[in-house]
Amino acid sequence: MKILAINGSYRGDxxxxxxxxxxxLSGVRAAGSECEIVTLAHxxxxxxxxxxxxxxxxxxxxxxxxxxxxxxxxxQKMSESDLLIFATPVYVFGFSVLLKTLLDRTYGISDCSKxxxxxxxxxxxxxxxxxxxKPFAAVICCDNMEDATPxxxxxxxxxxxxxxxxxxxxxxxxxxxxxxxxxxxxxxQQIFPKLAEVYKAYERAGRELATQGYxxxxxxxxxNQEIIPIKMFHILKRSPLFKRRFLEKANSMRALLxx
Length: 259
Hints:
Blueprint: E1 2-7, H1 16-30, E2 34-39, H2 71-79, E3 83-91, E4 94-95, H3 97-104, E5 115-117, E6 123-125, E7 136-141, H4 151-164, E8 168-174, H5 188-191, H6 194-212, H7 217-223, H8 233-236, H9 240-257
Helix pairs in contact: 1-6, 6-7
């Protein structure tokens, strides 16, 4: 099994996204599988011009941007992998533009004149299965604890899987990044004991991807759990009254946590 993690963070190797990727890939390596990280911030990725030259006879499936940037190099790595990890922070309620721009460019390697019916029953155009049809897992991270914050990104990856006939191997969502100090400060595990469980689940997710090609629901549940040490917090946080009281308490803790 060869797994390629695509890091869509603007912060590149310095962000929370990279920390989470590393935890997953430690599990992949422990299972004896090969893995690699493509950090999009280190590559030149031009936007699709929607010029449709890639659909013409003269330049069939050849993007005019392909000789000006690094996208073909990334696509080659994707095609040589057995499973992908799309990893991204949430920016203004969506996922990384770096990652979206890369995925937009798959238009240039697809024959849009050919109409198909996906296995999930979706009408769509032809896609390049060696790139777009790879099984994948999604890793989404954010600071906010509202369920609505990563909702658009979650919806996108589910829709992408249906139209591309790509098996969705799991979705890991890690909120409260700032409270966890983005995984860089071990002492936060003493303040938020569930963090240790979360990180172990990320490593287990890597082992599961390497050995069985998907992340089990039980592992996803542990990895996606709330880290706030309040019983039933995932339900209580929906209450406006609780939110006001939580906000007061959180502000009083800011100095302690230095956030």
